[in-house]
Amino acid sequence: MISAFGTDTALLLIDVQLGVDDLEHWGGPTGRRNNPGAESVMLDLLTAWRAAGRQVAFTRHDSREAASPLKFSLPTGAQKPGFDPADHDIVVSKDVNSGFVGTSLDVDLRRQGISRLVIAGFFTNFCVETTTRMAGNLGFDTYLVHDGCATTNRVGPDGVDHDAELVHQMSVANLHGEFCTAITGADAAGLRLAVNAQLDRMQGNE
After folding, report:
1. CB burial class (10 A; 0-12, 13-18, 19+) of residue 93?
2. Which residues span the domain enclosing 77?
3. Position 3 in a domain
4. Domain with 187 in it: what CATH number?
5. What pTM value is reported for the model?
């Protein structure tokens, strides 16, 4: 793992939209979610990135599925409170799981000199996992903030209801060391602070 995040690092927040809270849609009649603190971690990251003047990027999902709550034409397609993009943010709309398929995300990031991504959002096993895999394959040095992600339970073809936390953990385990480095929000904050400390030393502020 690197010692600090520099100006080549962007924060990528995936599908932080109201529709992710429709747990019955995503997890069935007993729909339930893990990690209720994910939004708090994401907000802390967003605040830190904005304060440092670093690049922020968002994906927003506009589903092809008629029944999906993640459609721009529905109120549930809107961003969650506190996650509205700023004018200088990169924002792409997608209708598949990967933020890189059918969007300008790769080009937009590289035009801003971004070679490293810090990723968080929804859902761990769907769009977060797919986007993280592709980010790694495209050559970005990729960090997944696993406590800044969440998902719901999943019912398999055999009818077995898999707990949301287990689904989340397996996705993180599949990604870590292969497509990304899994870190916590506190890890990400520490790496950002390390950058500030380096700048202070360079500017003689210590």
Report:
1. middle
2. 9-202
3. no
4. 3.40.50.850
5. 0.93
**Number of domains into which the chain is organized:** 1
Assign 3-class secondary structure to the chain.
CCCCCCCCEEEEEECCEHHHHCHHHHHCCCCCECCCCHHHHHHHHHHHHHHCCCCEEEEEECCCCCCCCCCCCCHHHCECCCCCCCCCCEEEEECCCCCCCCCCHHHHHHHCCCCEEEEEEECHHHHHHHHHHHHHHCCCEEEEEEEEEECECEECCCCCEECHHHHHHHHHHHHECCCEEEECHHHHHHHHHHHHHHHHHHCCCC
Contact 152, 93 (CB under 8 A): no
- 196 in a structural domain: yes
- The predicted-structure confidence for 34-44, as pLDDT tens digits, reads as follows 999 999 999 99
Residue range 20-59, pLDDT digits in tens: 999 999 999 999 999 999 999 999 999 999 999 999 999 9
58 part of a folded domain: yes
